[in-house]
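Hi everyone,

Forwarding the result from last night's run.
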Amino acid sequence: MNNISRREFVKTSALSGAGFFIFPSLKKEGKKEILLPEQIDDIKISSQQYLDLAPAEWIWYPSERTLQNTMILFRKKIVITKKIRSASGWILADSRYVFYVNEKRIQFGPAPSDPRWIEVDPLELTNNLTSGENVLGAQVLFYGSGDGTSPIGKPGFLFYLKIEFEDGTNEIVVSNGEWKSYLPKSWKAGQYKRWYLRSFQEEFDARKFPYGWLNKSFRENNDWLAAMKLDCPPDKPSICSYYYEYLYETWGDRKISYLTPRSIPLMNEETVSGFKLAEAYQILWNRQPEEYFDFLVPDSFTRGKEVSVNKVQDEFQLTLNENEAAVLTFELDEQVVGWPKFTVDAPEGTIIEMMVHEAHKASGPVLLNSHFNSWTRFICKEGVNNFSVFDFESFRWIQLHIRNGGGKITLSNLNVIRRVYPWQNKHNIILYDAALQKLMDACVNTLKNSAQETIVDGMARERQQYSGDGGHQLHALYYSFGETKQQARFIKTFSQGQTPDGYFLDCWPAYDRLARLMERQLQLTDWGPLLDHGIGFNFDCYYYYLYTGNLEALEEAFPRLIKFFYYLKSIIREDGLLPVENTGLPSVWIDHEAFRQQRHKQCSFNLYASAMMLNALAPLCHSFKKFKIEEDVKQIGKNILNAAVKKFWSDDKKLFVDNLPWLQEENEIRLSDRTLATAILFDQCPGADSNSIKTLADAPEELGVSYPPNAIWRYWALAKSGKMEVVVDDFRKRWATMDSVLLNNTIQEGWKSLPDNWSQWSHCGVVPLIILFQGIAGIMPLEPGFNSYKIYPQLADLGKLELTAYTVKGRIEFSSVGKYGNRELKIKTLPNAKGELIISDKEKTDLPVIRRFENKIACALPENKEVKISLNFT
């Protein structure tokens, strides 16, 4: 396919079923093969990516051991005597920091990174420094035991600030031994881990905190020690220091590690209020609350009577006896990600456990502690306390469990500092269908929660970056916001998680798969690095090039793709297929709902691998001028497809049957939407695919259906096959009715999600939003960088639709009014790009007709024009 001309390709593929999902040739003429398989370890890194912060020095609290979940405060006074023109620089800490100037919160960071190649955050302080004394402060948390946002590391703080004055002079402020460091007793160093993928189980004692430490008049006592300089160059991450890391004994390789500037903007932080009191009850404790929160001891408490809460404007007032405990439960209109905060005026020693949750049912469990130990403990000082968590949460519900404080309690200022990625463009989607509009709004809000510094599945559980089912949301970012930096960072950071053997750690940068490798050695888990996510990552890279035309951003990842290919080639079995069982440390997932047995996944997995090799990796090899490897990739892809046809294609059913080799043993036929969809999308059926299409559309009982994020494969195949009415009907009946859509303005992880348990209510499956652009409006690039594109509208029964699709060439404005038989279509086309509109061949149009095929015509769209067309048969 990649050797034919664009015209021939469009004729044979783009117009076959209108070519919903198109994999064009990415030809780039040039020199012959320069990269051989034995040279694939060479990773090309641009020199512009390196960052050296000399004369800054890595510093830490004077110590020879740092316990997990240790918080350190760093403080530095500077004096400004001249007018400032600019003040900017860089800041980095392992694991997380909050930076302040003169008591004002400036920013939180850094973004999750591979510990060998950490991104350094920019710092802009021009408008924050004042004449005279200024106090710089950093609150730094070292995880120490792994987190969904931090694989592994060593403690350290690095700071560089250049101040330019209007008289032309400069001053450099850097981290060094002149900074003061403090180990606050308000957080317990060595605090236990909250959950497998959440490090910090925060407990904050306000009575022990050095309030005023960010104030100019604050006086440091003998507990403020001169910071210790770490033996680590300022162009290397802290993992390369010689500081002893006692839990894991890690030593970073200075020859390969480096610092790099942050590649995406800092997150926006905005205050969201509007919490409503939903419930207030007494808690009658049978055992000590601390024991319950530590060990979840059954029958530790019972629900008491309702508590009287007096609401005065924005304050909530209640009175407790000395041994009484109460819970106040608040809800927000939608689920968000950020830092919950509140003010409380209470007697000294009052304890408040703040719990957050994605979903709660009124009159359900009285305590919300049913979601990965998502609680933070605050202990009040006398009088007014302003509390906020250090690490961000994902939630709609907040519950405050108040105890140990007899007397009057006044709560106020309950809100959340929401963190959202600063997309440059605002999404524009208007559907004159209330249910579908709410569904699309839920998809957008879900993206706000899951697509931040990393592209994660769900922020309430793992907060870690995945390809595969998690990578699909990248499509929505391109179209909805015109975003490309997030995807480029995703590609770079995910690729860095490749193992020496060649497979990828399928969630990276994150702690999860490091632990799973150990567990897999002892057969203690089914979860290993997912090979199917490595296949998906090849597609992610290909799509990035297709959407942006930017091959340079793939230069670091591309050799890793080749290494992964040769790993797959090395594990092909005697039957010519890749295994899905007995795979060693990595594993094969594909989906957990579409298949009844692990061996049933082999057909789907091999079709997926073949499709990747022929339609993603081979074209990328061609564009990178790696022609010998391209031929090898193509041949292996064809071999795997032939072997899959031989083992799983049923001439009788005219379908790929997932359990065809074991039919007699199992006495039932098992199909899957993933297998059939892959075969349709990539033209893998050896005969006609009509039976596959019909089966996907009808969804009979023997068809396994994937969980929501992977349902997109079925919808892609139905869109290619002209079955959009089935898709839209599914959106209305199955998606728009999700509890998460109706209650949280989000997309849930499973088809059924329950409140008050581990269910994920804001998860990455923004499938309807992707299909809106690619299937319903039918907007897809044909050549890299949208140099050419198609619009193949399949509007089903939608009466009115308006949307903006952002591309690297500009905006496509798309609107449709009316239903089948009487539609008016209006399109604002791209400049400097060749567009094609695919409609029924019965339509009358003044647009030039390029081709006719299968009862359709492809019409040439003018560049940078508004096109109006009446449709009676489309």
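The domain at 48-262 is CATH 2.60.120.260 (Jelly Rolls).

Cheers,
N.
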